[in-house]
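dumping this here so i dont lose it
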């Protein structure tokens, strides 16, 4: 009897523990890029994620991340392709890629790709997978419906009879309300770099093929 009770208690604890739920996404190509400066010294190591664009018939950058830990290195997936699973800030990511390539360059490929697709036009990776473990807590005393919209329809007219006191005949002067104008500033565009001013790549592996 005691063993059964202990097992039930352990099961309840395990069931109440938040699960390891990752934000799963798929891309067509992931690139492991080693960027060097003009003197051949290592500058940055980064992962660049691409999706195939059927309109322009080329891979377009979707997002990029600095390579900080060995856990970010792509590894072959048993189902084919490659998989990367790592803790990206508050998000546990698991990204599947159809193809993988590793390059060594003296320029930043991600910056060059902005000339083909501006940074603000990219799809980017999802910020966070919504699960019951990471949803924002509800405000105390407020229902989920009221947290979405706090606007309520106007209340009906009161049924209390009007007072019998006569209304004063003195005219009331009305003051016109002043109007204000809001000024908006145009957003600055992302600067791009002329690829012709960059040195050529040191070494690159076999290019990826269209999916």
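and the seq i came up w/
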């Amino acid at each position: 009897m005691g063993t059964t009770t202990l097992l039930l208690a352990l099961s309840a604890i395990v069931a109440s523990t938040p699960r390891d739920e990752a934000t799963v996404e798929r891309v067509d190509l992931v690139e492991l890029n080693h960027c060097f400066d003009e003197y051949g010294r290592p500058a940055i190591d980064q992962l660049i994620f691409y999706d195939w664009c059927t309109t322009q018939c080329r891979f377009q950058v979707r997002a990029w991340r600095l390579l900080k830990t060995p856990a970010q290195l792509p590894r072959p997936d048993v189902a084919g392709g490659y998989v990367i699973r790592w803790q990206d800030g508050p998000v546990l990511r698991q990204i599947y890629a159809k193809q993988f390539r590793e390059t060594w360059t003296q320029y930043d490929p991600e910056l060059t790709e902005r000339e083909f697709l501006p940074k603000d036009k990219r799809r980017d990776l999802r910020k966070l997978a919504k699960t019951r473990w990471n949803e924002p807590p509800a405000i105390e005393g407020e229902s989920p419906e009221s947290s979405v919209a706090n606007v309520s329809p106007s209340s009906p007219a009161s049924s209390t009879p009007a007072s019998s006191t006569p209304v004063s005949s003195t005219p009331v002067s009305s003051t016109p309300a002043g109007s204000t104008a809001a000024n908006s500033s145009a957003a600055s565009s992302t600067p791009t770099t002329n690829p012709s001013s960059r040195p050529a790549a040191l070494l690159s592996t076999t290019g990826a093929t269209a999916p």
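The radius of gyration is 29 Å.
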